[in-house]
């Protein structure tokens, strides 16, 4: 069967015939004038990669570029997975569900695909979506109890829950706070993308006791462009001795509260005020 017949049977429309790609000029692969061993790529692969080079060189990070990487990956082009991650990061958190579904499609064919698991972990850390992850791991383990990748993912999720339970029991104990950070390899941005982290900080702050470590966590999150909920902002304001705080910047306000409730390190919190970025 010819390649054209295969395309017709699969329903695939060549990229060059799709209206949304009419403005893009594909960039052919340059193997030089005398390639030693020219590779006989399929027409599908050559066309897809020619368009991929075009969007890559144009620094395009769009929805259509994201879809193009999916097609390239389906043709076994590993380099495009890194580019897909780059595009998804630009598009933001609203594509998290789409990216998690993308890995599910791969796992339906190969549940232990290392590259797909790596991409899924990046999505969860950078874009969010942890809420249903443990249930999904359970689903995979029901299909294959020996799936080590699913076991590793499930164990981390349960360890986060364990750390949060310990924090709520004794919020003044610094150890579970450090353990929680360690589960994310001290990647504060990834830490902030797990909604459970913001939630446990809110719970501790609303209790209005033993909240130094919770405020410290919030401070670190804010310094990495974490967007707090209104509830969290209100909880911070409620801890200020001044009903009308003079610090308009939330980061500065957190540091001021820490200076009062943690006087031993008052100079440190004053120093933090001078080193942290201002809130937008």
From TrEMBL:
Q: Gene3D superfamilies of this UniProt entry? A: Protein prenylyltransferase
Q: Which cofactor does it need?
A: Mg(2+)
Q: EC number(s) of the enzyme? A: 2.5.1.58, 2.5.1.59
Please indicate if the UniProt record lists Secreted as a keyword. Answer: no
Q: Where is this region: Disordered?
A: 1-35
**Sorted alphabetically, which keywords does the UniProt record give?**
Magnesium, Prenyltransferase, Repeat, Transferase
Q: Does the keyword Transferase apply?
A: yes
Which enzyme type, at the first EC level? transferase
Against Pfam families, the record matches this protein to: PPTA (PF01239)
Q: Could you tell me which InterPro entries the record lists for this protein?
A: Prenyl_trans_a
The Swiss-Prot or TrEMBL record describes its family as follows: Belongs to the protein prenyltransferase subunit alpha family.
What's the protein here called? Answer: Protein farnesyltransferase/geranylgeranyltransferase type-1 subunit alpha
Q: What is the originating organism of this protein?
A: Rehmannia glutinosa
């Amino acid at each position: 069967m010819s390649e054209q017949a295969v395309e017709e049977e699969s329903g695939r429309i060549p990229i060059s015939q799709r209206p949304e790609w009419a403005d893009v000029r594909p960039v052919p692969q340059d193997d030089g004038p005398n390639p030693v061993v020219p590779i006989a790529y399929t027409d599908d692969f050559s066309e897809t990669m020619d368009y991929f080079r075009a969007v890559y060189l144009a620094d395009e990070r769009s929805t259509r570029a994201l879809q193009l990487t999916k097609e390239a990956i389906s043709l076994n082009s590993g380099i495009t997975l890194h580019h897909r991650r780059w595009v998804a990061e630009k598009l933001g958190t609203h594509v998290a569900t789409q990216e998690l579904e993308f890995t599910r499609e791969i796992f339906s064919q190969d549940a232990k695909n290392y590259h797909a698991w790596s991409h899924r972990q990046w999505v969860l850390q950078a874009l969010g979506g942890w809420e249903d992850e443990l249930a999904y791991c359970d689903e995979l383990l029901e299909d294959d109890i020996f799936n080590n990748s699913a076991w590793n993912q499930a164990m981390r999720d349960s360890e986060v829950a364990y750390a949060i339970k310990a924090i709520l029991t004794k919020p003044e104990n610094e150890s579970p706070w450090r353990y929680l950070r360690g589960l994310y390899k001290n990647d504060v941005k990834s830490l902030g993308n797990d909604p459970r982290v913001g939630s446990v900080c809110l719970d501790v702050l609303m209790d209005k006791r033993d909240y130094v470590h919770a405020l410290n966590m919030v401070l670190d999150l804010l310094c990495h462009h974490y967007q707090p909920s209104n509830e969290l902002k209100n909880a911070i304001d409620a801890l200020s001795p001044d009903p009308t705080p003079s610090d308009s910047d939330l980061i500065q306000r957190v540091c001021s509260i820490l200076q009062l409730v943690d006087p031993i390190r008052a100079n440190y919190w004053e120093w933090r005020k001078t080193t942290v970025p201002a809130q937008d």
